[in-house]
Design a protein that fits this description.
CATH architecture of the largest domain: Orthogonal Bundle
Helix content: 25-40%
Shape: elongated
Organism: Methanobrevibacter smithii (strain ATCC 35061 / DSM 861 / OCM 144 / PS)
CATH topology of the largest domain: Arc Repressor Mutant, subunit A
Strand content: 15-25%
Protein name: Large ribosomal subunit protein uL11
CATH superfamily of the largest domain: Ribosomal protein L11/L12, C-terminal domain
GO cellular component, one term: large ribosomal subunit
Number of strands: 5
Pfam families: Ribosomal_L11, Ribosomal_L11_N
Number of domains: 2
Oligomer: single chain
Radius of gyration: 19 Å
Strand order of the largest sheet: 1-2-3
CATH class of the largest domain: Mainly Alpha
Function: Forms part of the ribosomal stalk which helps the ribosome interact with GTP-bound translation factors.
Structural class: alpha+beta
Largest sheet: 3 strands, antiparallel
Length: 160
């Protein structure tokens, strides 16, 4: 029972049998419409966002399993803030401000795939992403906000 795994990045809820899915899965001879339908059903909550998808295929029986990952942190942040692009000059150009409660929401969504042991550390990881995107957090530089998290200034919001 040999299994192959294909990993692809697809827009949530709108997979099609065309590229990138079709060329990646076509050689395995599985029913593409079943795969597309299952991916779209499982990724519907992430509509409009790029979502990592892992398709495991049994070469002998042509059965497949689909795992939907969470979108990249940058995609979740942009979705929360309603922005289309991050800053071209992250150190100099601030394009938006991420409130601490939204940072916590994103950390909760991504928690299983973060390196953090608790939500406080998860929020700090999200803030780290904000640095490279040219965003502020609660009206300040994300690095300052991280220090505030360490100092306990957001403990009332960051309740687990």
């Amino acid at each position: 029972m040999a299994k192959d795994t294909v990993e692809i990045l697809i827009e949530g809820g709108s997979a099609t049998p065309g590229p990138p899915l079709g060329p990646a899965l076509g050689p395995f001879g599985i029913n593409m419409m079943q795969v597309v339908e299952e991916i779209n059903n499982k990724s519907a909550d992430f509509a409009g966002m790029k979502v990592p998808v892992k398709v495991s295929i049994d070469r002998d029986t042509k059965e497949f399993e689909i795992e939907i990952g969470t979108p990249p942190t940058t995609s979740l942040i942009m979705e929360e803030l309603g922005i289309e692009k991050a800053s071209h000059e992250p150190g100099a150009d601030i394009v938006a401000d991420l409130p601490i409660d939204k940072a916590l929401k994103i950390a909760r969504m991504k928690f299983d795939s973060l390196l953090a042991n608790d939500y406080k550390a998860g929020v700090k990881e999200v803030m780290g992403t904000c640095v490279s995107m040219g965003l502020s957090v609660d009206g300040k530089d994300p690095r300052e906000a991280q220090k505030d998290v360490d100092a306990g200034k957001y403990d009332d919001v960051l309740v687990e």
